[in-house]
Write the structure tokens for this entry.
Amino acid sequence: MKFLSKINLFDRDRMLEILQVFLTNPFRTFLSGLGVGWGLFMIVVTVGASNGLENGVTSDMGGRVKNSMFVWTQWTAKPYKGFKRGRSFNFNSSDTEYLRENSTSATLIAPRNQLGGHRGSNNIMRGTKSGAFNVYGDIPGYIEIDPVKIISGRYLNDGDLDQERKVAVIGKRVLELLYEQGEEPIGSSIRVQGVLFTVVGVYSTYKTGEDAEEGNQSIFVPYTTFGKAFHTGDKVGWYGILIDKEIHADSAANEIIGLMKQRKSVHPDDKRAFGHWTMASAFEEIETIFAAFRLISFIFGGLALLAGAIGIMNIMLITVRERTQELGIRRAMGATPFTVMRQIMAETMFLTTLSGLAGVSLGVASLEVVNDLLKSMDGASGSFRNPEVSLNIVLIALGVMLVMGLIAGILPALRAVAVRPVEAIRTE
């Protein structure tokens, strides 16, 4: 550290001398620094691109909270307690209460039904206009699991649930298709399979891109009203569940499915009877994939950076050989080995630092240009959004660059110190 502190790049005379050395052969200087600059440029751009893909994929998840989980029934794969293989069954309201009372990993159990089943859509009418939309029966807490933004009116509340009110919250796309521009939807009525519902709110999804349109084409009605109006009784289509943030998603899934296997007389080893999906697992997969991308970016960028540092070292060795007479005269006039070594190290570090900063600046500028271009596309960029690189990544890359520059300067500096004054002065 004491040695590094004495390599002062901000001494005016030394700076002028360094500039004179490199400006004597500018093309060679440019080629020498190109490798280092390209290596840092590659690190910044590839890490930024990886973050852009991660941001896009995460946004496509529609704002669902990370500790959410979804569970549904399928078909049994094993016979158990007198039941044959291939049995189908459903959740019901008593299962909801059972989970609420017995699960230690769930903080919210939200039953949900969908008219027409999963991915089913229904013809919704308002006057002479109609459209095919998804209709869900929800409890007020479901918005904590799959958040939406209320842009007019309100969301479902406990009073709607308890009093089985025929009210509905409609998506922004539903509003656009069933209402005239500027028409007030709150308090108006829509008809769902012959049943009139009063609109109490309009929402917008947090999803982006192509998923946003589908996300805005839904209608939410109270879970209890749904059962009465559409004759589903106490049947539950699936559960949305919030998991305690202190409990791992896999542990929570094992506990909840284990409870349901006991209650529904399903073999403990039956892996087909229930389906489930957790946002935490999805996020972990995404983070693992993109962490690997970033690691690969650093590896290839680091290799380019290493090649650049080796190039600078070779150029400095050539420079030292060309300046043999100059170095000999310095030694003859009383320059110490440390003074000569410090000069060569300063020249190497200057070229490395200048090249690296140029590469980083160009990389960051490129990401900003791409980001502005994506914003101008207004959501048509697919799963690629906001490419960025954190300050920590930039600082780490610059730190690696400085270390490589220091290492690259050692051999030329030692070669310069090894020059004997008398022999150097005689060199033509």
Observations:
- Residues 116-229 form one domain.
